[in-house]
Specification:
Blueprint: E1 7-8, E2 10-14, E3 27-31, E4 35-38, E5 44-50, H1 54-62, E6 64-70, H2 73-80, H3 86-95, E7 96-97, E8 103-104, E9 110-118, E10 124-126, E11 129-141, E12 151-153, E13 156-158, H4 170-180
Antiparallel strand pairs: 1-12, 2-3, 2-6, 4-5, 5-11, 6-9, 7-8, 9-11, 10-11, 12-13
Length: 183
């Protein structure tokens, strides 16, 4: 049922020394569970990941992470690769600037980034996952871009479709959506 609900694809990067698969490189992964919790009085975000996780260990060790919204499906694929693979290590070297923050390189499909401190006491383990809570410390844009955030829905990477006018009837909007679908 939830496969039909679109979720933004966000790359999570963290510095840390706990990762045996790629010594000296940051840990990273792709999540589709990123959410804002609140914007005031301070901005907080959350995402879920399966444990055990070397990226989670790096978040715990470093005390923080950088979340990046992406528009490039190739970047999404790179962070979906198995961590033990040579391709993953190559993707980290090609996609990440290791300036102490571990942020995506310009031109790799990043739209915006949020540097967050890890809220260890607020994060909670649920079954075989952990809900990671972060307090946004800084945020910015990778470049001036009109690109849309890549989303995941029905087992595929996608971009959001055309906007819907809430002042028209549901039937008019349905016709508009049907007529805008390719052949």
């Amino acid at each position: 049922m939830m496969r039909r609900v679109p979720h933004p694809l966000i790359v999570i990067l963290a510095q840390g020394t706990q990762n045996p698969h790629h010594s000296g490189l940051p840990s990273g992964l792709l999540v589709s569970s990123f959410n804002t919790i609140t914007l005031t009085p301070a901005p907080y975000v959350s995402f879920n990941l399966k444990v055990p996780s070397s990226t989670y260990q790096s978040i715990q060790t470093s005390g923080g992470f950088v979340a990046s919204a992406i528009s490039n499906p190739h970047t999404a694929r790179d962070f979906f690769l198995r961590k033990e693979s040579v391709e993953y290590r190559t993707a980290l070297r090609e996609n990440v600037v290791d300036d102490g923050r571990s942020i995506l390189r310009d031109g790799k499909g990043g739209i915006w980034w949020m540097e967050c401190s890890f809220m260890d006491k607020e994060s909670v383990e649920v079954g075989d996952h952990v809900v990671v809570i972060g307090k946004v410390m800084r945020a910015g844009l990778y470049r001036e871009s009109r690109d849309q955030v890549l989303i995941y829905s029905e087992g595929k990477y996608r971009v959001a479709g055309e906007g819907v006018d809430v002042t028209t009837s549901p039937q008019q909007n349905a016709r508009k959506v049907r007529n805008s679908k390719p052949g």
